[in-house]
Amino acid sequence: MSRKKTVKGKSSTSSPTAAASKSKENGKPGESISTPEITSNGTVHPSRPSLSNSSEFYDLAFKVMLVGDSGVGKTCLLVRFKDGAFLAGSFISTVGIDFRNKVLNIDGMKVKLQIWDTAGQERFRSVTHAYYRDAHALLLLYDVTNKTSFDNIQAWLTEIHEYTQQDVVLMLLGNKADATHERVVKREEGEKLAKDFGVPFMETSAKSGLNVELAFTAVAKELKHRSMKDPNEPKFKLQDYVNKEMQTSGCCHS
Ligand SMILES: Nc1nc2c(ncn2[C@@H]2O[C@H](COP(=O)(O)OP(=O)(O)OP(=O)(O)O)[C@@H](O)[C@H]2O)c(=O)[nH]1
Ligand SMILES: [Mg+2]
Hints:
The protein is an alpha/beta fold. The protein has helices spanning 74-83, 125-132, 147-151, 153-163, 187-197, 212-228, 238-248; strands at 43-49, 57-68, 97-106, 109-118, 137-143, 169-175, 201-203. The chain has one domain (60-250): Rossmann fold (3-Layer(aba) Sandwich). Strands 1, 2, 3, 4, 5, 6 and 7 form a 7-stranded mixed β-sheet that branches. Guanosine-5'-triphosphate binds next to α1. Belongs to the small GTPase superfamily. Rab family. Residues 1-51 are annotated as: Disordered.
């Protein structure tokens, strides 16, 4: 991807450093936010417990942001990942920004993801911009049943490049892949757009759970590999990993 940077003074590394790990575990959707606790270049503390929940140990911690138009399913994707449930029924648009934590076991290491769920509505954009800079990874969503949300991806990418760190991990997700009859954006179109911008891509469904775990795990793996910087380990390739996992599970081409 051609990653034009205009913002100066950004950290260009995801390597881990010591940092406080005071945490608001299990923040609830709609709750107002507290100060973020992970530094802009990640944290590592061997088996460090978070302060608010001593049972939750982790080795690495990263911030992941969910972004994209209102209604594409960001909150539902997070709830599916965190709680394994789908928020059916009336759509409650997110106000401002909120986060939830989840610790994953990645190749024997406990990787904590602090996942920020942003409001897609335009009027909250200035609020969410303030959080981009600290993000280690972004999941950019569109809705396969909503062409406008797909057409807006390019504008989102411009915004992301302007406000995030240069080495932010980025993945494009075409959500609501379960909605076969309402689909207006083909998987191939998503693939092409992602390829044009050099971004890993896959389709997901917060409703059925399709690829939800995989999306977050792939990002966590990428961040872990970057932070460990082991020259003996082969370079982790996010898209290859995702393709391989989808093949193995025999899923995910709708
Ligand atoms: N069929 C289907 N519907 C979904 C899926 N994900 C979300 N939805 C529905 O889409 C609507 C919007 O979902 P949200 O997760 O609230 O959307 P959002 O991106 O968080 O929207 P904002 O908070 O306004 O930015 C809700 O009615 C959900 O039930 C999915 O994977 N499949
Ligand atoms: Mg939301």
